[in-house]
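This protein record is not my work; I was only asked to verify it. The record follows directly below this note.
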Amino acid sequence: MRKIVSLAFANIRKNKGQSLSFFIIIFVSALFLSLGLVTMFEYTENFDKKALQQEAPDVMFAVQEDREELLTSFEKEMSSDKRVISLAKIPALLAAGEFYYGNGLNSRNAVFFEASDDGSIPFGAIMEKTDKEVEDPIYLPYLFKMGGGYSTGEPFHITLVTAGMGKKEFSFTIAGFYEDIYFSTINSTITGFLLGERPYGMLKEALGSGPAGCVYAVEAAGPDDNERVSSVYGTKLGNICNGAGLMWDSNHYASVKSARTVTSSIGTSIIVGFSVLLLLIALVVVNFRIKNSVEEEIRNIGALKALGYTSSQLIGTFLMQFTVLSLAGGLLGILCSYGVLPALSLMYAMQTGIVWEQSFSGAAFVLTLALTEVLVCFVAFTSSVRIRKLPPIAALRTGLQTHSFRKNYFPLDKGRGPLIVIMAAKQLVRSIKQNILIGLIVTGVTFAAVFAGVLYYNINIEKDIFIQMVAGETPHLQLEAGGPEAAERLLEHVREKEGTDKAFYFSTEVVTCEQNYEAYGYILNDFDMIDNTNWLYQGRFPRYDNETALGGLLAEILDKKPGDTITVTQGDVSRDYLITGLIQGSNYMGHDLCMTSEAYQRINEGFSPTMINAYLKDRLKAGEFLEELMDSSADLLNAVNADEMIRSSMSSYQDIVAVLAVVVSLVTAVIIILVLYLVIKTLLVRKKQELGIQKALGYTTGELVLQNALAFLPVVLIGALLGGWGGCMGLNPFFSLLFSGIGMMKVGFVICMPLIIGICAFIAAFGFVVAAIVSLRIKKISPYSLISE
């Protein structure tokens, strides 16, 4: 064992530069893999810890109490349900709100709670608080600080709309920021604000009795009861409020968790996917390095065998050499990943508003190190096993067992063209195996670069398809009427307004599939009206009252496919539906379905649509259109500029992908430099005598450098073209595999050919320049020194 260790470390010392290049590649791949796995294992667990610390309820209902008698029976029935352990009632004010967030105007339902003057709040936790006294204090969700750009001491303006008051702007001073599972977000259907005692009283008086309401915080008997309680009583509450024109909202823990961790899920998929590509490249480098080491040290291997070393000991030397390097690189990569985590956490917080308190993940550590070590050891063993077939006498003859000479391609006496080009061509064909390995590495690097480039293009430039993949059907405006009759008048009014392209009912209701799986049902009458062509990816949309199209991820979980039947439950009513197709989207993590209004009324007879999707001829005029609609229609209860809200919330995704694109570009450049350095240095050592003879014959250093660089140009160019072609053909299936866990089952990103051609051309040109720079070591080779040696 001591001999093996000594030989292994002697090889590392002898090839310091090549060992360092391999170490860096392993380091980078382990860093990214650890980042992805820590996020995968820890982020959702952190969310659960936050919920436990803040004593978040299992189910939440928010409702206006304009006519309290309507809710009395609802409250009594829920409190007596065996599935409900406790029921807390928190006073609140509910109204439709409009405020600036980030770079855009955000319209959504708002709920206001009273915070005592000493800073205590009815739920959640204060994350930041000003030291100065504030007359009209408001506490905003922590997300508004991280992603919205607000700070303590600044004014906060919000426009509220109620039936009695109309539209009015209110101003407060930001006293701090709070964190909560349900209300401190803009990713769900309602956003919460905390007001001091004085401003809360003033707002309550200004709004009148209509917006006064409450929030029911429900603790369920068990995790399986959360969705059932939410579904049953959400249906009852919806029927009560929609008929009376009251604002209401419901949610439960699993749904909120999926909505607020979707960013980390997408980020994790991207990071893990990129780390896998890097690890594959590292394995190709291992294979290349060992095979070249065997060729370089073939005489030494023969001598060692003649001295009594066994093949197993020599193979163990290579295993030890690369195991030590990969272990060191892996450990350092994992260690450095925890230094990068705060920056990644900050980017996630800008989207979710949840502070991630990072801790050491033993599972991520073991998995990263084990995966790296096992794969490197496997490739090292399979690459070095050829030593067993190498007799000492053949090794001492530099591998020649008999006099065998290959065909002389591109003979100089018959070749046409510049001599340097012919010499480069001869060098190219004499190193086929080496060139194949270089080509594979460049192909992998190019694929990784195209991966980042296409992702950047579809999220930061042509973002419509990504928005459709993430958000599903995305109208310009989402409108809510005060009741069924008001909805009919509002729909007709919107359709008649100038600037409207189309408008139709589009409701979202919570249902249960197969008695155990909650899903969000999209209810509309005419599926030909939707704009999202990527929504349905298999089969057809439902047409009749016994049909539904099921979310692809939910279909996989339930082992369902088009043509099967599924039991859908709303409240206490269940019906069987025929699955006509599969839909996709990361909304609700792929747990969704769609059906017609007639189909939904089979399980909820009291349903009448009050939600409207409106599409404009010019989406940039959505804000102006909404202002006019609020002034001209008394039937409008609430409105959301959905297009602006979604696009403004995309900023964190864009930041993550922009950082990833920069990192991938740097990593691509580093890997090309390291690989070409490794290969060319090996080549120069092997051809030192030949290069010295060429110099003695009159070749200049510049000519030999150009010859060497030209020999690598076709390999790098072909590798880049293959990587680009692989990106064109395989990226969408690769993205589908990465994102299928969050409901994006069949990704159809735009493959921008000019971008891919540019990446391939840059990599080829960059490879040529690097090869030329590394080849400058030829300058140190002199015929005199070779003769002296």
